[in-house]
Amino acid sequence: MKIQYASYQDTIDALQSAMNEHPHLIRLQSIGKTWEGRPIMLVTVSLDVTYADDKPALLYTGSIHAREWIGNELALKFIQYVTENYRFNPKLQTALTRNTLYMVPCLNPDGFEYSRNHFSFWRKNRRNNGDGTFGVDLNRNFDAKFMRNQNTGSNTYGGPHAFSEPETCAIRDFVEQHENIRIALDYHSQGNVFFPAHKFNHEVEVEGADLNILCANMNHEIKKVTGRQYGIHRGKPPAQLIHGSGREYYYRKGIIATVVEVGTRNIPDYMKNMSESVAENIPAILHALGEAINYSPLAPLRVADFTIKAVDHEGVELEWQYENRDDIYFELYRSESNKSPCGEESLIAITKSLSFRDSQLRSGQSYFYNIRAVDKVTKIKSPFSPELRLKTHLARHQSARTLFPAKEYVGYLSENFTSKNKEHFGYNSMFIGVDKKRGVSLGLVQFDLSSLPSGANIERAEFSLYPMNRVAAKIEKYGEWSVSIIDPDSLTDIYDYQAVSEAKPLHTLGQTFESDKMTQGIWMKWQLNGVERALLNSLIAQNRLLLRLQGPKALPIGNDSQVMQFDIGYGPFGSGLHYRPNLELVYQVPEQQLSLSPTRCNTIYKNAVVADRLASGFDEQGEIVYGQMAFALNADLPVDKTVFTQACLTLRSSNSIASAKDVRFTIELVELQDVDFQAVKQRQKIEYIGYEVSNEQLRERAEHHFIFDSYSLQALERLHQAHTPFYFIIRATSESQATNALVNWAACQDQHPAQLKIHYIERRKNALKAPQNLAAQIEGGVVKLTWENPEDEDFVGCFVVRNRFHPPRSPFDGVKLYGGKDDYTLDNFGNAKLSKYYAVFSYDDVPNYSEPVALFYSGDE
Q1: How far, in Å, CA of 443 to CA of 440, rounded?
Q2: Which UniProt keywords apply (predicted)?
Q3: Cβ-contact 125, 141 below 8 angstroms
Q4: 705, 650 contact by CB (below 8 A)
Q5: How far apart (Å, rounded) are the C-alpha atoms in residues 136 and 158?
Q6: 281/78 Cα distance (integer angstroms)
Q7: Inter-residue contact 104 to 171 (CB < 8 Å)
Q8: How many helical (H) and strand (E) elements, i.e. helices and strands, does the chain have?
Q9: Are residues 705 and 692 in contact, defined by beta-carbon separation less than 8 angstroms?
């Protein structure tokens, strides 16, 4: 099917024809010549094209690698889409009116034609290296940390020096002459992944949110067409990052730049796969084109000091700074994972205020926030502020754990390398799927559950895995990847491939991932449902959870690989602690129960108090009669470590009211100074308990249950903390005047007196004191942080976080560097020359996190 791809001459002819038919829309020019004399063609598209260079622009480059034909083909199809739709498509009209598209369909014409006609796997250009070899990898030839490579025969040979090649010089000169370029997309194959630009230090940059959100929004457009999910990944740790790439050259010049790797083969079946890749990427390019103006001098300034003011278990208050302008408002976006799109579906607020309270959130849940300013007249938007990350506090009854596998308990086992399988644990990464070399490969992750108390009830559980490379998953729409819970007692040797392969799963997690949903650089998450959480609860007694990860087990004829590679956070190619597989758990520790009987019961008339009797209603004159009870908490429960989770007051009535009037009875938790009519009438009501009981319900049954709501439970705890008895009033209400309407309730000395049942857990309520004396110094070329831990028997450890832009106010607002009992850590993955903020939080067993102690590290920029 290769003949369906356009040749380079076909490309030029099509562009020339499009310009002739739409001269107000399209301009075609050569920006240089190749070694073999071919023109390097660039097409400019804009309404009106005469003023194209005065507008913010998107630069598209394709097929810089000769065998990656998608770049050229997609460019042609996008031009065709524009010419067929610009007259009536409002989104396209707006994008082309406000922005310009500069498109180089093929930046490597010589190599492209050599790949088409002689050797399809050719990658480089056609420079004669003078030693019998040909070609330079043009995407290693830019002046962006150019690296000299003496091996001229290598596919990644970068040339004798930066910009040694006419192709890279041509695009360099064009970019330097066009300061209006704001976004650059460089189209490659393969991988179905976005590779945003970087600055070789793997620390967050101010444009980091812009890069991720641009890719995420383009991803959203792709998904709408085919359902496919692209990855978003900045690459490996700094030592292994690509040098001399055009992407980094553009980014260094202030251009938002990303590589887009399309498809799973360099030259796929045109009708079956290439046409699909083209169709899904056209709306993605259109979105990026429309964004160019938002990164131009016409755009409002980026919102400053976007940060967390306060956070609790159900909401967060955010704040930011901006100059006082009537023509500016703010768009605020929220998602539950990073690298998520910021569009209508995630827009939670449009406001002119400099703060926002986001409520009705789930406790113990991670949230990600983004903000941009908008000009209300032009609707031009600012770049995004750095993303805010946080986790809401746990609810009063909840505890949480984030579990990581030990080094020797995370890895993969291969069918064809059984003698080396133990070496695959704790080293580099997991390969899961099937290929010719390894055969079938299975992943294995074991979590230690011993830190969970026996009898804990798991309310939420989520298993997360970070895909670091999907290039070896070469077959479109083939295979699924799944996670199964294996009986830990059924495996005596977790390094035995045959035993692991044949182990019968206790349960396979409900969600599987198809190959076109397998991303790179976006966390894969399995949310455990109720059945799966119940199984996990039962495994706590065995102290471990064993997960088997598997992909496809057979290959179609003519294919050699369908393998996904996952980061394990260990080994020379692992990306560290915050990329390890993890299991997040939110749970409640086992409940205990108290059953209290009243210590006093009184019936309170207007002129008398009758002890040891409990009645309420209305007397002969229609005056209200109150019933009053007191309960004393006789158990020795520490006030700072006791949380009431449920409470119920049970009363038994011995009669109902003969009157037909609608009389109802309510229970109030109150504060009382004296037990007399006047004191009760002027009582300070704390809260109603449960629902009222009607006279009709009194006739139906004798026993009545009054359930405490959340506020009442907290009030009960407050009274417990003050060592105060619990006072209750039984009050009657009526739709009209009632007389002789008294209900007798079982009193203290009766056979079935009132009963107050309280369920509680032992859980620390308040955070520890913050660490002290946080300091930073350079040691061995990296930043070393030291601090003093608080002295407290409940101290579990400290959590250390790095943030480039503001002091972290949440332990999740930044990059986690350390969690544990030590009083120091090293920022091994940071750049010691960059300024940043560090914060340390102490935490207990819940965990409750202390207020942060933070410092600004100035670096040496």
Answers
A1: 10
A2: Carboxypeptidase, Hydrolase, Metal-binding, Metalloprotease, Protease, Zinc
A3: no
A4: yes
A5: 6
A6: 9
A7: yes
A8: 13, 46
A9: no
CA-to-CA distance for 622 and 624, rounded, in angstroms?
6
Q: Which residue bears the tokens 């009537």?
A: 326
Which tokens hold the place of 304? 């400053």
Residue 428 φ then ψ, to 5°: 70, -80
**Could you tell me which residues come within 8 angstroms of residue 3 by beta carbon, excluding any fewer than 6 positions away?**
none
Mean pLDDT of the chain: 94
pLDDT in tens, 410-435: 999 999 999 999 999 999 899 999 99
What is the pLDDT at residue 1?
38
Q: What letter does residue 425 receive in the DSSP assignment?
A: B
- CA 41 to mean position of chain CA atoms: 41
Tokens of 382: 């600012």
Comparing CA positions, the residue from 98, 55, 62 lying closest to residue 79 is 62
Q: Which residues pair with 544 in a beta bridge?
A: 448
Closest CA to 466 of 550, 544, 577: 577
As given in the structure block, the two tokens for residue 322 are 């901006």
Calpha distance 468→483 (Å, rounded): 18
* 531, two tokens: 């059945």
| Cα–Cα distance, 574 to 564 (Å, whole number) | 15
Compute the CA torsion angle 156, 162, 164, 165 (nearest 10 deg): 60
Residue 89 CA to residue 349 CA, distance in Å, equals: 28
CB of 665 within 8 A of CB of 727?
no
* Beta-strand relationship, 836-843 and 853-857: antiparallel
| Residues 265 and 474 sit within 8 Å (Cβ to Cβ) | yes
Q: Is 502 exposed, middle or buried (0-12, 13-18, 19+ CB in 10 A)?
A: exposed
List the end-to-end C-alpha distance of the chain, in Å, as a whole number: 53
Beta partners for 776? 785
Q: List Cα–Cα distances, 569 to 393, 426, 580, in angstroms.
A: 27, 8, 5
**Vertex 325: Cα angle to 321 and 330 (nearest 5):** 55
Question: Across the strands, what pairs with 333?
Answer: 347, 370
Give the residue from 253, 235, 282, 241 showing the smallest Cα distance to 183. 253
Write out the two tokens for 226.
Answer: 């085919």
Distances (CA, A) of 3 to 68, 113, 281: 15, 13, 22
Tokens of 323: 């100059």
Q: pLDDT tens, 754-789? A: 999 999 999 999 999 999 999 999 999 999 999 999
Q: Are 832 and 782 in contact (CB under 8 A)?
A: yes
Specify the amino acid at residue 608: A
Residue 197 CA to chain centroid, in angstroms? 20
**Taking a C-beta distance cutoff of 8 angstroms, is the pair 126, 114 a contact?**
yes
Q: Can you list the pairs that 678-682 forms with residues at least 24 positions away whose Cβ atoms lie under 8 Å?
A: 680/604, 680/626, 680/628, 680/729
How many angstroms separate the CA atoms of 702 and 605, rounded?
A: 24
DSSP 8-state assignment for residue 94? H
- Across the range 727-732, mean pLDDT stands at 94
**Cβ–Cβ contacts within 10 Å for residue 601, how many?**
24
d(CA 808, CA 787): 16
- Give the integer Cα–Cα distance in Å for 806 and 814: 9
**Token pair 């044949």: residue:** 502
Predicted pLDDT of residue 235: 66
Q: Could you tell me which residues come within 8 angstroms of residue 635 by beta carbon, excluding any fewer than 6 positions away?
A: 594
Exposure pattern of 520-541 as b/e (b: 16+ CB <10 Å)?
bbbebebebeeebbeebbebbe
Q: Are 64 and 111 in contact (CB under 8 A)?
A: no
Contact 817, 776 (CB under 8 A): no
What are residue 133's DSSP bridge partners? none
* Residue located via tokens 């929220």: 334
Secondary structure letter of residue 142 according to DSSP: S
List the structure tokens of 51. 């003023």
Distance, CA of 131 to CA of 137 (rounded, Å) = 16
